[in-house]
Structures are given as structure tokens and as C-alpha cells.
């Protein structure tokens, strides 16, 4: 498959991710085009074109969000953070993200599957494509990498548009590496998204709180009784 064919195949997913992160169809199109330029200019063919494009796109979107945030800070120096509630302590999510960024692709995928999506050891091994014992060793490596005495927990509710963008930028490429996709879909009658493995099995769902055209809060749901509705429009 040529690069342009691989890009066109991944384009709907890329547009969906960019639109969710930037909340602007025009900016999403521009970001996807930039990702294509990065891919086209790459001197070597990546092992996975889709993973390369997804990673490049999330970096581009994050850079756009950082620039927008800087402009907002200049315009209003008195911005206030939303009040903290139980399950929204930023330090827990920040510690988990920092740990993920220190791990290799397979270690990162195993951590996300086990600690974030709460997949069973058997599910994790099947998705990653290695024996359960190897997954346990990989998880142990992640535990040793953690700064504290225990692996940092993952909050079930994440707030803040910029923080959410960083979360997506970290976990989506890692899961794509092992064939797990994230697609927009109605969840319990609300905007959301669904993680599925390569066989279409639902692993986890996200429900979104959207304000001013941007996702402000995501609520994680895991377990065997996940509620999903018809696919959301992108």
C-alpha cells in the first residue's frame, strides 16, 4: 500500500481525533494536512503508517492548543481552575501520564490496557499478542519505572480541555500500536467515544461533557456492561 493510500485510509480517524481535540473543522483539516506532510517527508517508511500519522497529528494538535492557551493567558491573566472534586485530583493523572511517557510502546500499551481500561490479564495478552507471563513482566517493568512505591492510579474523571488533549495524545497512539481503536459514539445518550479491540469488542467507553465546543470533562467506564448507542456524527 502506498503512503497516499495509507493516509486516505486513516484520514477519517485522523479528522475525528483532530476535531475532538481542536473543536474546529477548519483547524482539524489543517492539522490532518500537516500530519500528511510530516508523513510524506519522512525519509524512511514507518512500520505503521497509521501509528505515525496518529502520533504526528496529536503532536500538531497539542502544539496548536498550547499556542491558543498562550494567547488566552495574554488576554486574561486571571483565569481560574475549576474546583477539585473527589476523583479529579490532577496529581494522580499527571503522575500516570509522566510514567507512560517513560515507557516503551509495548510497556505503555500493557499499562493502559491493565490500569486504564482494566482489561483482564488474558485480554491484555491476547491484544498485545504475547503470553500472559510476558505481560506480567512488562507490567513489573512499568512498576519499577514509577517514582513512588506504587503504580500511580488513573482517575475515572478527567477535567480540563488541555489536560484531556494530553491524555488522548499519550494513550491513542499506544493503543493503536496494538490494534485498539478509539471511535466517536453516543454513550448513554451523550457525546462520547468507544475503545474496541481489533475484533470489535468494546473495552471501555468515554462520556464527554462539552462546553463552548470543546471537551471539558471525560468520564471513563469499564466492565462487561458498557452502554453504547449509535455512532456519533463526526
Please describe what this structure looks like.
With 234 residues, the chain is of the alpha+beta class. The chain is 54% helix and 13% strand. It is built from eight helices and five strands. It has helices at 3-22, 25-41, 49-75, 90-102, 105-116, 121-128, 132-145, 161-176, and strands at residues 157-159, 181-184, 192-196, 202-211, 214-222. A five-stranded antiparallel beta sheet has the order 1-5-4-3-2, with helices on one face. A hairpin with a 5-residue loop joins strand 3 (192-196) and strand 4. Helix 1 (3-22) packs parallel to helix 3 (49-75) and helix 5 runs antiparallel to helix 6 (121-128). The longest helix is centred in the N-terminal third of the chain and has 27 residues, at 49-75. Mean pLDDT is 78; it is low at 75-92 and 230-234.
Amino acid at each position: 500500500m502506498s503512503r497516499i493510500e495509507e493516509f486516505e485510509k486513516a484520514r477519517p480517524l485522523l479528522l475525528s481525533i483532530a476535531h475532538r481535540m481542536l473543536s474546529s473543522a477548519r483547524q482539524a483539516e489543517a492539522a490532518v494536512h500537516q500530519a500528511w506532510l510530516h508523513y510524506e517527508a519522512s525519509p524512511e517508511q514507518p512500520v505503521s503508517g497509521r501509528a505515525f500519522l496518529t502520533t504526528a497529528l496529536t503532536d500538531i494538535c497539542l502544539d496548536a492548543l498550547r499556542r491558543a492557551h498562550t494567547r488566552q493567558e495574554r488576554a486574561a491573566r486571571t483565569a481560574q481552575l475549576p474546583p477539585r472534586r473527589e476523583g479529579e485530583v490532577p496529581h494522580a493523572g499527571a503522575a500516570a501520564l509522566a510514567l507512560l511517557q517513560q515507557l516503551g510502546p509495548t510497556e505503555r500499551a500493557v499499562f493502559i490496557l491493565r490500569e486504564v481500561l482494566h482489561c483482564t490479564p488474558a485480554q491484555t495478552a491476547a491484544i498485545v499478542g504475547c503470553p500472559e507471563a510476558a505481560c506480567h513482566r512488562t507490567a513489573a517493568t512499568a512498576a519499577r519505572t514509577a517514582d513512588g512505591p506504587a503504580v500511580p492510579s488513573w482517575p475515572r474523571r478527567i477535567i480540563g480541555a488541555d489536560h484531556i488533549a494530553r491524555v488522548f495524545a499519550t494513550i491513542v497512539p499506544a493503543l493503536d500500536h496494538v490494534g485498539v481503536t478509539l471511535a466517536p459514539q453516543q454513550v448513554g445518550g451523550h457525546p462520547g467515544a468507544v475503545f474496541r479491540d481489533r475484533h470489535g469488542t468494546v473495552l471501555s467507553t468515554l462520556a464527554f461533557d462539552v462546553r463552548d465546543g470543546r471537551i471539558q470533562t471525560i468520564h471513563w467506564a469499564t466492565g462487561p456492561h458498557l452502554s453504547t448507542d449509535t455512532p456519533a456524527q463526526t
